[in-house]
Design a protein that fits this description.
Elements: H1 29-38, H2 40-67, H3 73-112, H4 118-150, H5 172-185, H6 203-212, H7 216-227, H8 239-252, H9 257-271, H10 276-285, H11 300-307, H12 317-330, H13 338-346, H14 355-361
Length: 364
């Protein structure tokens, strides 16, 4: 009897660990936990994707090795064409297998009336809801703290009042908070090859650009800040790079890596054009609500004040409102408050927003 786990690792290779006497006894402890987290149907689709990714990776490695031995231009072109044809073949095979498996899963659920992934989906949703609730509580706490500090009501209708104070990253309270968060984030261990130094660019930058799919402008801004040895807030030289190293280690090793990569990508996009202090605050925000003790340094009102005004540059009102809808939804703004934020975007057009219409028909 084969005592080896039947699972496929995330690198596309077969697991070589011995099975455990848990579940149906076909998987090791680690992959049984993965099965429970994702559900059997979702796990099967993920493993199919892992194998495809491995095949593409191995094909690229062989192509790169063979290319080094081809000197003539014609030979290189021939090799490249064969490489592209093989990539297309692998991808088409994966798409077909993925579609076939999904149809089989759907038919099985219809036939039996049982979704084997239901409990896993519910557990995953509960975790996501709990995390979202923690983030919202933290955001609301920051809103109240800033209101008390500034003795000002939240912005209402005028678009001009949406914009947060551009110097807020320099206030004494924010500086203190940023330093505390930086100290906490830097407790995350960073392997040698990922550490900031004056001589070489570490692996951190390349992996973030590749895994988080940064735009060219975002990547350029991040690179310039990373290689800078500026001692932001007089903490220490290269502090931006050192904090980013720790943040990336948390992100890449987190079970929520994809969500965190999305947050990282958004923060890097928002960093464009900001000062060094603002850039440091933004990367501290990435782990807000994920790492214990890390809260967002930007309130919901401040974030909306930064994201919504640029929408006025969009001439088409419908497109402008749709984009605003997406921003409000992403920031978990109560629907009862939408008109407060959206109406200034259409004020010049003498229109009245129908929030319920947007809610039910935006994506129809």
């Amino acid at each position: 009897m084969n005592a080896i786990c039947v699972a496929i690792r995330s690198n596309g290779e077969n697991c070589t660990t011995k099975r455990k006497a848990i579940g149906d006894g076909t998987r090791c402890g680690v992959h049984y936990n993965s099965l429970m987290k994702h559900g059997p149907n979702t796990m099967a689709l993920l493993e199919l994707k892992y194998v495809c990714t491995r095949n593409l990776r191995e094909l690229t490695a062989r192509y790169t090795e063979e290319l080094a031995h081809r000197q003539l231009h014609e030979d290189r072109v021939e090799l490249y064409n064969a490489y592209r044809a093989n990539i297309t073949r692998i991808r088409h095979a994966y798409i077909h297998a993925d579609r076939t498996l999904k149809h089989a899963h759907r038919d099985e659920v219809i036939r039996t009336g049982i979704d084997p992934d239901e409990q896993a989906n519910q557990r995953r949703q509960q975790v996501a809801d709990a995390r979202r609730a923690r983030r919202m509580v933290e955001q609301e706490r920051m809103v109240e703290a800033r209101r008390e500090m500034n003795h000002q009501p939240p912005p209402r209708r005028e678009l001009a009042r949406f914009a947060a104070d551009p110097q807020n990253v320099h206030t004494a309270e924010t500086v203190r908070q940023t330093k505390e968060i930086v100290e906490r984030v830097r407790t995350i261990p960073v392997p040698e090859g990922y550490r900031w130094n004056k001589m070489f660019v570490s692996k951190t930058i390349g992996e973030i650009i590749a895994d988080c799919q940064l735009t060219s402008h975002s990547a350029a801004q991040m690179f310039n800040q990373y290689v800078s040895s500026v001692a932001i807030y007089d903490i220490e030289e290269g502090i931006y790079g050192k904090v980013l190293d720790s943040v990336w280690q948390y992100v890449k090793n987190s079970p929520d890596k994809q969500d965190l990569c999305n947050i990282l990508r958004n923060e890097m996009r928002d960093n464009i054009g900001m000062c060094a202090q603002g850039n440091l605050s933004r990367i501290c925000n990435i782990l807000a609500g994920y790492m214990e003790g890390i809260g967002s340094q930007e309130s919901v009102s401040e974030r909306l004040g930064r994201l919504l005004p640029p929408l006025m540059e969009i001439e088409d009102v419908d497109t402008r409102v749709r984009n605003a809808f997406n921003i409000l939804q992403e920031n978990a703004v109560p629907i009862s408050d939408w008109d407060t934020w959206i109406n200034p975007l259409i004020y010049d057009d003498d229109m009245v927003i129908d929030v319920e219409y947007i809610k039910h028909n935006m994506y129809l």
